Amino acid sequence: MGEKKRFSFPIAKNPLPLYIETIGYNPYELDFDRPEGYPYYHWLHTSRGEGIIELEGKKYTLREGRAILLAPYTPHKYYSDHDAEVHWQTYYMTFTGEAIEPILKSLDMNYTAFYEQTSSINFDEYIDDMISDLTQQTNLDHFSYEISVKLYQFFMHLRKYGKMNDKISVLQSYEKIKDIVEWLEQVYPQDIGLLEISEKAQVSSQHLNNLFHDTFGISPYSFLVQLRIREAKRLLITNRDLSLREIAKLVGFNGVSHFVATFKKREGMTPSQYRNLHQ
User: Fold this and answer.
1) CB pairs under 8 A, 24+ apart, for 233-236?
2) For the packed helices 123-135 and 140-161, what is the interaxial angle rounded to 10 degrees?
3) C-beta neighbour count of 63 within 10 angstroms
4) What DSSP string describes 59-92?
5) What are the angstrom distances between the C-alpha of 191 and each of 156, 176, 186, 206, 221?
6) 112 contacts 168 by C-beta, under 8 angstroms
7) pLDDT per residue over 115-129, tens digit each?
8) How far, in Å, CA of 192 to CA of 247, rounded?
């Protein structure tokens, strides 16, 4: 494909039972560390080169023609060999919807697993076809209906022709905090802390802390901060007219100085440097 491509669809505007949040191609895949996972299903496959993905303390190679389907909130990190002669080139999709769980469950695909393409299904061609259609559209909101159909067709073909291996089991500890994690995804911009989280979960702060450490390796409050930082990073790139003060308020920080200090501590650079890096 050559140049970087990315399309995103605002979730609040999308009433479909199955829809894509983001889809794209990256000729120079970035490094990501998500101890809290991602809130939606995440498909990532290698077009050229190879990358490394870490799950539950184990390293897996994502070589050409191999993919991973990450279930929501699966802690993970992935990165490339920056000294490799061939850059790690990837295609990706994130998707959700009211019907996503029953559809994937009926196909026995509602968990984290690796997939291999076969002679009957080429991952590049399938995702590239969707991206090409999006490139030609002038009304992306309307076309989200068509792309939803293509996503469903992709699931069916993947189930029929793809080769699944290395199924990753869901942590039992995550099942115990799934509801509170989904609640935090909705309320992270609000002025809440460990006390409010514990009250919502109806467990002691210590017990909740243990559950989050068992699942994500971090505390509940650190998880909350991660959600705020993740949304801030999205806004820094997609809403360049927003000031740092406005972004800090939108994602739940009490002040811009606290936002900048926390962002730099966690990301190794200031919000402004991050924004400039992704021009």
Assistant:
1) 233/267, 233/274, 236/271, 236/274, 236/275, 236/278
2) 170
3) 13
4) EEEE-TTEEEEEPTT--EEEEE-TT-SS--EEEE
5) 43, 24, 12, 21, 12
6) yes
7) 999 999 999 999 999
8) 17
Distance CA 205, CA 217 (A): 16
Residue percentage of the chain with pLDDT more than 70: 92
Tokens representing 216 are 């994500």
**Which residues, including other chains, have CB under 8 Å from residue 275's CB and lie 6 or more apart?**
236, 237, 240
Structure tokens at 77: 């990190």
Instruction: Count how many residues are written for the chain.
Output: 279
Q: Does the structure show a pLDDT above 90 at 226?
A: no
pLDDT tens, position by position, 184-198: 988 999 999 989 999
Assess contact for 253 and 188: CB atoms under 8 A: no
Residue 174, classified by CB atoms within 10 Å of its CB into exposed (0-12), middle (13-18) or buried (19+), is buried
- Cα 53 to Cα 175, 177, 196, 218, distances in angstroms: 23, 24, 34, 19
Residue that has been written with the tokens 């730099």 in this structure: 264
The token duo for 16 is: 């479909």
* pTM of the entire predicted model: 0.74
Q: How far apart are CA 253 and CA 133, in angstroms?
A: 39
Measured CA to CA, the distance from residue 90 to residue 253 in angstroms comes to 33
Residue 171 confidence (pLDDT) above 70: no
Cβ 74 vs Cβ 168: under 8 Å: yes
63's tokens: 């070589």
The sheet carrying 32-34 orders its strands as 32-34, 76-80, 51-55, 58-62
Continuous H helices in the chain = 100-106, 123-135, 140-161, 172-187, 194-201, 205-216, 220-238, 244-251, 256-267, 271-277
